Amino acid sequence: MEISNRLLELRxxxxxxxxxxxxxxxxxxxxxxxxxxxxTTPDLNKITQISSIFHVSTDYLILGKEEIHxxxxxxxxxxxxKKQKQVAIIxxxxxxxxxxxxxxxxxxxxxxxxxxxxxCFTSASEYILRWPLxxxxxxxxxxxxMGIVKLVKIYVKEK
Length: 159
Description:
By secondary structure, the protein is mostly helical. Helices cover 74% and strands 0% of the residues. The model has no long low-confidence stretch (mean pLDDT 87).
């Protein structure tokens, strides 16, 4: 089967007129008619647009290889479980980053307090459990724990 026949079949299967397909591609109805009759062949840009409109691969359009539905492939890769894992990992990662930069923030806050008041704690780590760094510490810990709990729930559910 030629590209012309595959294009005609896809258009009819999707209940689309030549006019509607032409509008979607930004070409004339006559151009679509010539493609379907085999008088001319669409250029590469139009082939990629056609594959996107009909949710088929360009290999199918050009070579007639087995039809691959692009929607199905994408939906397999983005399952709700995979998205939940990604969210859990992002939470854990954000928590780890926040907890890792706490010593730097404490040291900076120690310097700020010394400049402002002329005195400060001798150890910067004492600021981690005092406001305002306490809020950041809690945020990092909560994000990290949320990620762990979410991952444990996902893995328990899978087994």
